[in-house]
Amino acid sequence: MGTASPAFVNLRAVGIMARRAAAGAVARVVGGVFGPVLRAANVPTRDDVPSREDVRRLSRQVATLTGEVRALSVAQQESRGRPAVSEPPKSRRRPG
């Protein structure tokens, strides 16, 4: 059969490698053009790998926002005359 011949397999492998190389070249060109625009718009790109410090900073921001939301929730509950809930429920599922 023609599709099982070594020549066909080699030709197919070369075709796959050429297609990947072309796609990589296009991605580099497009990334070079649009990358700065996306970064200026604060949109992450595939090349923007967050550092550990970035993750720590975001984690601190989320923790701060969570505390602020809890404080606002307590203040809202107290203004309505309801007892404040100190911690939100962890899950809506009943233990079973």
* Overall 3D form: elongated
Low-pLDDT sequence parts:
none
Count up the helices. 2
Gap from first CA to last CA: 61 Å
Order of SSEs, N→C? HH
Q: Structural class from helices and strands?
A: mainly alpha
Strand content: under 5%
What does this structure look like?
The mean pLDDT is 81. The radius of gyration is 27 Å and the shape is elongated. The protein has 2 helices and no strands. 0% of the residues are buried. With 96 residues, it is mainly alpha-helical. Helix content is 66%, strand content 0%. The longest helix is centred in the first third of the chain and has 35 residues, at 6-40. It starts with 5 loop residues before the first helix and ends in a 17-residue tail after the last helix. It has 2 domains: 1-48; 50-87, no CATH class. It has helices at residues 6-40, 52-79.
What's the SSE blueprint?
Elements (H helix, E strand, L loop, with lengths): L5 H35 L11 H28 L17
Keywords:
96 residues; 2 domains; elongated
Brief account:
The protein is mostly helical and 96 residues long. It is built from two helices and no strands.
